[in-house]
Amino acid sequence: QVQLQESGPGLVKPSQTLSLTCTVSGYSITSGFYWGWIRQPPGKGLEWIGSIFHSGNTYYNPSLQSRVTISLDTSKNQISLRLTSVTAADTALYHCARQSASTNWFDPWGQGTLVTVSS
Amino acid sequence: DIQMTQSPSTVSASVGDRVTITCRASQGIYSWLAWYQQKPGKAPDLLIYGASNLQSGVPSRFSGSGSGTDFTLTISNLQPEDSATYYCQKANSFPFTFGQGTRLVIK
């Protein structure tokens, strides 16, 4: 059974860099799926941040592209997210999810980790 | 970019009722649409993919239809555990935009 678990600092200062890790268990991240990051501001809807293929090819939301980097650590079976120059608008619950490479739906999802941007 | 618009934003219904939630794409996306259910404090769960295909383990009272720009999620014989927020997602190409969500309240 595939399980995803996000982790990282819960508090980041404005203008700094947000760094999160998604640890996958029960499945190798090199086995042919995309891996995506999706965020959800408190009380609001879902926003796709970006996805990475097992080959390392990445696709980012145009609204975040200049600030986002998603990468793989195959030795640890982890996916990483970096978001630079954060502001309060980046405060959200950050989820990682497995994404079918052929059909593009997200399943399963991690529970998410809350990141607050505040001084 | 293609925008996804859901309606209504909130719907209230009773146990046993039938509810329909609509998702409209600003451009045609064929059947490249997924529906998710999110309960408070939980991660979203995939309900339907390809506009009308039920994900394994999802009760048959959930159904999806539509293609092109107009899609619907129908929940028949509402149960208390169906209280949640429902999201559609375009899946034809990047960026993978979600609708703003529809909150289902069970009276």
- Major sheet attributes of chain A: 7 strands, mixed
Morphology call of chain B: globular
Q: Can you tell me the residue ranges of chain A where pLDDT is under 50 for at least 5 consecutive residues? A: none
Q: Which series of helices and strands of chain A comes N to C?
A: EEEEEEEEEEE
Taking all Cα atoms into account, the compactness measure Rg of chain B is 13 Å
Shape of chain A: globular
Given helix and strand content, the structural type of chain A is: mainly beta
Number of helices of chain A: 0
Q: Total number of helical segments of chain B?
A: 0
- Give the radius of gyration of chain A: 13 Å
Helix content of chain A: under 10%
Largest interface: A-B, 22 and 24 residues
Average pLDDT number of chain B = 96
Integer average pLDDT of chain A: 95
Distance between the termini of chain B: 37 Å
How many distinct beta strands of chain A?
11
* Major sheet characteristics of chain B: 6 strands, mixed
Which helices and strands occur, and which strands form pairs?
The complex is a heterodimer of chains A (119) and B (107).
Chain A: E1 3-7, E2 11-12, E3 18-25, E4 34-40, E5 47-53, E6 58-60, E7 68-73, E8 78-83, E9 92-99, E10 106-109, E11 113-117
Parallel strand pairs in A: 2-11
Antiparallel strand pairs in A: 1-3, 3-8, 4-5, 4-9, 5-6, 7-8, 9-10, 9-11
Chain B: E1 4-7, E2 10-13, E3 19-25, E4 33-38, E5 45-49, E6 53-54, E7 62-67, E8 70-75, E9 84-90, E10 102-106
Question: What report would you give on this structure?
Answer:
- The complex is a heterodimer of chains A (119) and B (107).
- Chain A is mainly β and 119 residues long.
- In chain A, 0% of the residues lie in helices and 51% in strands.
- Chain A has no helices and 11 strands.
- In chain A, strands 2, 4, 5, 6, 9, 10 and 11 form a 7-stranded mixed sheet that branches. In chain A, strands 1-3-8-7 form a 4-stranded antiparallel sheet, with no helix packed on it.
- Chain A is globular and about 40 Å long.
- Chain A starts with a strand and ends with a strand.
- The relative contact order of chain A is 0.32.
- Chain B has strands spanning 4-7, 10-13, 19-25, 33-38, 45-49, 53-54, 62-67, 70-75, 84-90, 102-106.
- Chain B is mostly beta strands.
- In chain B, the strands form 2 sheets. Chain B has a 6-stranded mixed sheet with strand order 2-10-9-4-5-6, with no helix packed on it. Chain B has a 4-stranded antiparallel sheet with strand order 1-3-8-7, with no helix packed on it.
- The termini of chain B are far apart.
- Chain B is globular.
- In chain B, a hairpin with a 3-residue loop joins strand 5 (45-49) and strand 6.
- Chain B is 0% helix and 49% strand.
- Classes of the chains: A mainly beta (119), B mainly beta (107).
- At the A-B interface, strand 5 and strand 10 of A face strand 5 of B.
